[in-house]
Amino acid sequence: MRTSFKLLAATAAFASAFMLTACDDKKASSAKSETGKPAAEAKTDAKEPLKVGFVYVAPIADVGYTKQHDIGRLYAIEQVGKDKVTTSYVENVPETADAERVIRQMVADGNKLIFGTSFGYMNYMQKLAKEYPDVKFEHATGYKTAPNMTNYNIRFYEGRYLAGMLAGGMTKSNIIGYVAPFPIPEVLQGINAFTLGAKSVNPNIQVKVIWTNAWYDPPKDTDSAKTLLGQGADILTQHTNTSAVASAAEAAGKMVIPYNSNMKSVAPNAQIAALVLNWGPYYAKKINQVREGKWDANPVWMHMKDGAISIEGVSDKVPADLVKKMEDVKAKINSGEFHPFTGPFNNNEGKEAAKKGQVLSDKDLATMNYYVDGVVGKVPN
Q1: What pLDDT sits at residue 140?
Q2: Model-level pTM?
Q3: Whose CA, among 123, 260, 333, 345, lies 20 to 30 Å from 312?
Q4: For residue 97, how many other CB atoms are within 10 A of its CB?
Q5: Assign residue 374 a region: left if phi > 0, alpha if psi is -120 to 50, beta otherwise?
Q6: 288/104 Cα distance (integer angstroms)
């Protein structure tokens, strides 16, 4: 996907909807069932279980964004019951006309509920939703809808603030590196919440960002991580969908707070905590809704308190007092007592972004196009 800030004008019209995200172009593989066999070979009961399709933008083999969606798919199968639902997936689906082809084939295969997990699938899904009104379409992270199409997302910025606190308290160089894909509101929310969290415990930190213009590109992620380490960063994080940043931190003997999933397997010494996404309960809920004829078309923007995002695997290298501070803030976020974007704070050009006591609205978040104070550089066009 190619994104520009022209998109911000569009998102403003849908301010009650959610942040934007996308994923990198890769060739589509054959559809597979939960057994790992081609979808055409998947067995069905005489009772005709509900057929559900999942469209993934990256491979499930790499720990990261797509892996978490597939873990959610498997969770949903267990919760709903293998006799009541049959799932299939296609991985490495580009955000191009290939996505339309894959989703159209899923409809032809009899899937009555289809989850598209990347922002770039949005227009194709909306088009097909109009063509197939008897199929339910669920789109992750977008804003367009139809009577039989809705959106779902997670308030990633809540967990980002907590991760920032850990990074701010652990850095020795006061430089934190952030590998980012596209300068869209969702990603900027994450960078800014992370920075505000870091500054809350260490006002001297700087966050340096490198943009890859790709959601899944391990070589770019590796090169970006090495560049940030060369600029003095001793802690890294990322919003991209690979484990390459975590691997680079491990190789350099530095620290990392991965995003999307726990990456302890590739960064056993470097990982000091992981920001983990959990899509499973949502998938189970929506599958049951369709089965029961009670599908809900209302968009959902899930909170940390819903279990959709969590800080996991906090290392014993992190001081206990810092962990307690983080846990206290987590409790306040979950109770609604604190919002990560509560003023006063400025953008990094010195202009007031939020007055004292002001909490940014969902509209403000959906159109965010600046860095907060503490982030180095300018937001690219």
Answers
A1: 95
A2: 0.86
A3: 345
A4: 9
A5: left
A6: 23
